[in-house]
Protein backbone atom coordinates (compact mmCIF):
# COMPACT_ATOMS: atom_id res chain seq x y z
CA UNK A 1 0.00 0.00 0.00
CA UNK A 2 2.88 2.40 0.64
CA UNK A 3 3.64 2.40 -3.07
CA UNK A 4 0.21 3.94 -3.70
CA UNK A 5 1.00 6.87 -1.41
CA UNK A 6 3.21 8.46 -4.05
CA UNK A 7 0.12 8.83 -6.28
CA UNK A 8 -1.98 10.52 -3.58
CA UNK A 9 -1.29 14.08 -4.86
CA UNK A 10 -2.33 13.01 -8.35
CA UNK A 11 -5.51 11.35 -7.12
CA UNK A 12 -6.30 14.46 -5.08
CA UNK A 13 -5.71 16.65 -8.13
CA UNK A 14 -8.04 14.49 -10.22
CA UNK A 15 -10.72 14.61 -7.50
CA UNK A 16 -10.41 18.41 -7.45
CA UNK A 17 -10.58 18.73 -11.25
CA UNK A 18 -13.54 16.38 -11.78
CA UNK A 19 -15.44 17.93 -8.87
CA UNK A 20 -14.83 21.42 -10.25
CA UNK A 21 -15.91 20.50 -13.79
CA UNK A 22 -19.21 19.09 -12.60
CA UNK A 23 -19.70 21.98 -10.17
CA UNK A 24 -19.12 24.57 -12.91
CA UNK A 25 -22.01 23.08 -14.86
CA UNK A 26 -24.37 23.93 -11.99
CA UNK A 27 -23.21 27.54 -12.25
CA UNK A 28 -23.52 27.75 -16.04
CA UNK A 29 -27.03 26.35 -15.83
CA UNK A 30 -28.07 29.02 -13.33
CA UNK A 31 -26.31 31.90 -15.09
CA UNK A 32 -26.54 31.03 -18.79
CA UNK A 33 -29.23 28.34 -19.07
CA UNK A 34 -26.67 25.77 -20.25
CA UNK A 35 -27.19 22.92 -20.07
CA UNK A 36 -30.86 23.39 -20.73
CA UNK A 37 -32.99 24.19 -17.71
CA UNK A 38 -35.66 21.70 -16.61
CA UNK A 39 -39.17 22.31 -18.00
CA UNK A 40 -40.68 25.33 -16.31
CA UNK A 41 -37.28 26.51 -15.06
CA UNK A 42 -36.00 30.03 -15.60
CA UNK A 43 -32.80 31.94 -15.05
CA UNK A 44 -32.65 33.70 -11.69
CA UNK A 45 -32.75 37.47 -11.57
CA UNK A 46 -29.43 39.18 -10.94
CA UNK A 47 -28.34 39.52 -7.32
CA UNK A 48 -30.88 37.01 -5.99
CA UNK A 49 -29.80 34.08 -3.82
CA UNK A 50 -29.92 31.66 -6.78
CA UNK A 51 -27.95 34.04 -8.99
CA UNK A 52 -25.32 34.47 -6.26
CA UNK A 53 -25.09 30.69 -5.96
CA UNK A 54 -24.57 30.48 -9.73
CA UNK A 55 -21.75 33.03 -9.58
CA UNK A 56 -20.08 31.15 -6.71
CA UNK A 57 -20.46 27.84 -8.55
CA UNK A 58 -19.13 29.18 -11.85
CA UNK A 59 -16.28 31.41 -10.64
CA UNK A 60 -15.42 29.29 -7.62
CA UNK A 61 -15.54 26.17 -9.76
CA UNK A 62 -13.11 27.71 -12.25
CA UNK A 63 -10.71 28.66 -9.47
CA UNK A 64 -10.85 25.17 -7.97
CA UNK A 65 -10.44 23.67 -11.44
CA UNK A 66 -7.10 25.39 -12.01
CA UNK A 67 -6.11 25.04 -8.37
CA UNK A 68 -5.82 28.74 -7.53
CA UNK A 69 -6.35 29.71 -3.88
CA UNK A 70 -7.93 26.29 -3.52
CA UNK A 71 -8.17 26.19 0.27
CA UNK A 72 -9.89 29.58 0.55
CA UNK A 73 -12.26 29.00 -2.37
CA UNK A 74 -13.07 25.46 -1.22
CA UNK A 75 -13.94 26.82 2.24
CA UNK A 76 -16.41 29.27 0.71
CA UNK A 77 -17.92 26.63 -1.59
CA UNK A 78 -18.24 24.13 1.25
CA UNK A 79 -20.21 26.73 3.18
CA UNK A 80 -22.34 27.48 0.15
CA UNK A 81 -23.24 23.81 -0.19
CA UNK A 82 -24.04 23.48 3.52
CA UNK A 83 -26.27 26.55 3.23
CA UNK A 84 -27.91 25.15 0.08
CA UNK A 85 -28.60 21.85 1.77
CA UNK A 86 -30.19 23.31 4.89
CA UNK A 87 -32.14 26.02 3.05
CA UNK A 88 -33.34 24.17 -0.06
CA UNK A 89 -33.18 20.45 0.59
CA UNK A 90 -33.53 19.60 4.28
CA UNK A 91 -36.96 21.24 4.65
CA UNK A 92 -38.35 18.83 2.03
CA UNK A 93 -37.43 15.66 3.93
CA UNK A 94 -35.03 14.35 6.55
CA UNK A 95 -33.56 11.88 4.05
CA UNK A 96 -31.13 13.16 1.38
CA UNK A 97 -32.30 10.49 -1.07
CA UNK A 98 -35.79 11.98 -0.84
CA UNK A 99 -34.96 15.68 -0.61
CA UNK A 100 -32.52 15.78 -3.55
CA UNK A 101 -29.66 16.98 -1.38
CA UNK A 102 -27.19 14.15 -2.02
CA UNK A 103 -25.02 16.25 -4.33
CA UNK A 104 -25.01 19.23 -1.98
CA UNK A 105 -23.79 17.04 0.89
CA UNK A 106 -21.09 15.43 -1.24
CA UNK A 107 -19.89 18.78 -2.62
CA UNK A 108 -19.86 20.22 0.90
CA UNK A 109 -17.58 17.49 2.20
CA UNK A 110 -15.33 17.22 -0.87
CA UNK A 111 -14.73 20.97 -0.69
CA UNK A 112 -14.18 20.73 3.07
CA UNK A 113 -11.60 18.01 2.41
CA UNK A 114 -9.84 20.30 -0.09
CA UNK A 115 -9.63 22.99 2.60
CA UNK A 116 -7.41 20.66 4.64
CA UNK A 117 -5.71 18.64 1.90
CA UNK A 118 -4.95 21.44 -0.56
CA UNK A 119 -5.19 21.22 -4.32
CA UNK A 120 -3.00 18.21 -5.00
CA UNK A 121 -1.22 17.83 -8.33
CA UNK A 122 -1.91 19.80 -11.51
CA UNK A 123 -2.58 23.03 -9.61
CA UNK A 124 -1.45 26.65 -9.74
CA UNK A 125 -1.16 26.67 -5.93
CA UNK A 126 2.49 26.04 -5.16
CA UNK A 127 2.03 24.70 -1.61
CA UNK A 128 0.00 21.71 -2.75
CA UNK A 129 1.61 20.38 -5.91
CA UNK A 130 2.25 16.70 -6.15
TrEMBL record:
Superkingdom of origin organism: Bacteria
InterPro entries recorded: DoxX (IPR032808), DoxX-like_oxidoreductase (IPR051907)
Transmembrane regions listed in the UniProt entry: 7-25, 45-65, 72-88, 104-124
Subcellular location: Cell membrane
One protein family per Pfam: DoxX
Membrane topology reported for the UniProt record: Multi-pass membrane protein
Record bears the keyword Methyltransferase: no
Keywords, comma-separated and alphabetical: Cell membrane, Membrane, Transmembrane, Transmembrane helix
Family named by the database record: Belongs to the DoxX family.
Name of protein: DoxX family protein
Protein's organism: Bosea minatitlanensis
Amino acid sequence: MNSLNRYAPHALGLLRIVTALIFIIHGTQKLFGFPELPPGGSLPAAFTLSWTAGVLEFVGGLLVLVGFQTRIVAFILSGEMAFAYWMAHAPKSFYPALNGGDAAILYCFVFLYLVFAGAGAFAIDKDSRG
